[in-house]
Amino acid sequence: MKKQAGFSLVELVIVIIVVGLLAVAALPRFLNVTDEAKKASIEGVAGGYATAVLSARAQWEANGRPSAIVNNAKVNSVSYDGSTFMLTAEQSDVRVGYPIHYGQDNSASIGGLDNTECKVLFEQLMQNPPQVAEIDSGDVLNGKYQYAARKDNNGNNSACTYFQLASVTNNANGVAQITSAHSFTYTPKEGSVVVNIQ
Questions:
Q1: Dihedral angle at the C-alpha atoms of 68, 154, 97, 42, nearest 10 degrees?
Q2: Which residue among 25, 43, 59, 90 is least enclosed by CB atoms within 10 Å?
């Protein structure tokens, strides 16, 4: 009967070196795949948001562009997917018919957007949206949320920016910088949704 022996020490060292080299070669590819997945994810969510914005506007168009005059101002609204949204109205430099407020509020305006309203638009326009928190919420980075909502600019230039929390980076002091993450911005006065890859 022949005695069985395992690997010699030299063979074991060679195998460990080969596995180490393979790991070193594969790690950058794996990290790149993770970054690409985050980019694809933000683009997919932004695409869904843009589709919802355009669907709400299309519903308003299909309904014959209904509007009302309140306090000498034209107010547009639409019932979309069982919910009422207030829409942009005719003004200089503003495209008509894009969501600016969830719910019936005849005083809603682009300038009235805030972090809360941006969060609510995200949640109500999309079906099964990712979890979103207001950017100034104390628990925004607790792992429960995938996005943070922030209102940018003022007046008719107000916009909602949504930051992907999975792509947040830390500064030199180790503090999370939410605004360094991939994001997309919804600008109601234009009805545009633009992806910002960092």
A1: -150
A2: 25
62 phi-psi bin (left φ>0, alpha ψ -120 to 50, beta other): alpha
Handedness of CA 92, 93, 98, 100 (dihedral sign): negative
The alpha-helical segments, DSSP class H, found in the chain are: 9-62, 115-125
pTM of the model: 0.83
Count CB atoms within 10 A of the CB of residue 180.
14
Convert the pLDDT of each residue in 172-195 to its tens digit.
888 889 999 999 999 999 999 999
Domain residue spans of the chain: 9-55+113-196
Nearest C-alpha neighbor of 115 from the set 98, 95, 97, 137 = 137
Q: Are 131 and 125 in contact (CB under 8 A)?
A: no
Q: What residue ranges of the chain have pLDDT lower than 50? A: none
Kindly report, residue by residue over 5-31, the tens digit of the pLDDT: 677 888 888 989 999 888 888 777 776
